[in-house]
Hints:
heterodimer, A: mainly alpha, 67% helix, elongated, B: 515 residues, mainly alpha, Cytochrome C Oxidase, Chain A, 16 helices
Amino acid sequence: MKTLIIAISIITLVAIAIIPQIHFASAQLAQTQSAKQYINLRAEVWNEFFRMTTAAFTVGAIVSGTMIWLVWRFRESNPKNKAPTKWEHLEDPTAGSYEEEGH
Amino acid sequence: MVLELQKPRPVWQIMFSTHHTDVGYLYLVFGIVFLFMGGVLAMIIRTHLFFPGQGVLVSDSATFNRIFTVHGLTMLFLFALPVANGIGNILVPIMVRYKDMAYPKLNAIAFWMNPVGAALLWLGFADTSWVSYAPYSVIRAPGPAADMFIFGMKILGISSILSSINFVVTIMKCKHPDLSLRRVPLFAWSMLTVSLMTIIAMPTYAAALIMMLTDRLGLSGFFNPFAGGDPIAYLHLFWFTFHPEVYIFLLPAIGMMYEIIPRFSRKPLYSQASGVFAFVMLGIIGFASWGHHMYSTGMDFTTKVVFMIGTLAAVPASGMHVFNFLATMWGGRIRFAAPMKFAVGGIALFFSAGAGGVLNSAMPLDFISHGTYWVVGHMHLFLIGTIGFGFVAMIYYMFPYITGRMYNEKWASAHFVLMFWGTVQTFFTQHLLGLEGMPRRVYDYPTEFTSWTQLNQISTIGAWMIGASFAIFLASLIYYSAKGKYANMDDPWGLGGKYYYPVAAKNPHGGHSGY
């Protein structure tokens, strides 16, 4: 599940970053093919920005979805989550460190 | 301070104490009192706007201006800052393993400046709005209210600087020699960051206040266009201080979430280093984006682009905090007691508010949303959605430590549900109101605009829900601090192990010892 979410996130982010670039490049190409066509570069920059805003919202949706799943999956009342974590055997489970645990 | 209600001391003994837990307790009580005073003003504003054209509750626009001005000042400077300072006073010396704050008397002086500043703000009841933009504030704003506002803010500013110096020295110079700065808990890191930001930012506003005062007295004309001054200069000085101040309000709440989330997830924090890095980055980036409040003042394109990039630079650092929280929760066994509910709710709303911030930073969109209810919704989503939720989470978390008793979990859940739903309904709706074109800070609006009326009424119902949630909160705080069950001070939430490290702190009034 963790791997799937990470894979989907990476694919989505890469797609969002690449698609506007293709669009932008093809628009510039069209300008060179026809001298009469005028591309307002500033408008293109803003279009780029709005697409990045879309990216921000997409990331937001992914993060929010992940959070909702985390809350559902890792709540202590979830039947899959009955067994104590390995950190709970410590006197203070929060005092450990991911680095020291080899993560 | 522990078990205060079981072993009560005379009030004067707490009031005149210089011990960090007592000063922290005073800050907390002060902040909570003003939370409710500011909240009453918010209820008046929203209820008034529920009935357009009728002048319900507020009969004239001047009074309305005064109400939203004092509401803003109260929530920002008399609630948010004191509560952060209160929790900081209680926990920071414990976290750095020192007996007290570095300068205990200075600490108490810094606190006692707050009631003086608060009295000036509330007795003056100025109408300038909390930003007090020139030229209105220097030409037309009626005295003595505006003058009392200047002196009140001056005193609160000095108090902030004094307490910030104290935090910086305590953390940097008084921490235990065995404790490296890298391992100082992240809440202390958040207080260190905001203290350094305050020391850098606040003197600019202090200077602006003096200039405003001399302008009002006719001795100068810095911001007075009739005397050759430039009102835009005030905006630069103001936002140079108060955009970083947004982070000064925000970062302690994030630091509080770093205390709560690992404990209730029953596992270590995912990455201490990334949390420290993100705090430091936000502390620096906070100074690179003040111009985005002023896109519509005739700034040139290049300058606007610089400020836009500066604003967007905060996104990765904020994202690091969110990912740190999620990674910490991942693989844990999470108990959703009240502190955890509010912390997770705060993270969700933090992300929503941040998404709105990305849109605000875009110049073309900013021209549409500037001065509308969009801005009100965005700002409040941060202030209540993140800072409010973080602070409430921490107050529930500290409740057993301060009172020795437990709050009621069911009432706390009711508080959470009402507050979360109310926050979403009130402030998401205000974003839509802004897109519909409703300007902010208006006393009334035409009833012919039916969408404005409908959205305002939806927003107001949400605000009433928030009000009801805080009524539950207040009743719980009072009732369960006196009548609640005694808490198991080693492990109040039954999480297992010895989690509750503040109780191991050195207590000046007997009880526990540690470190």
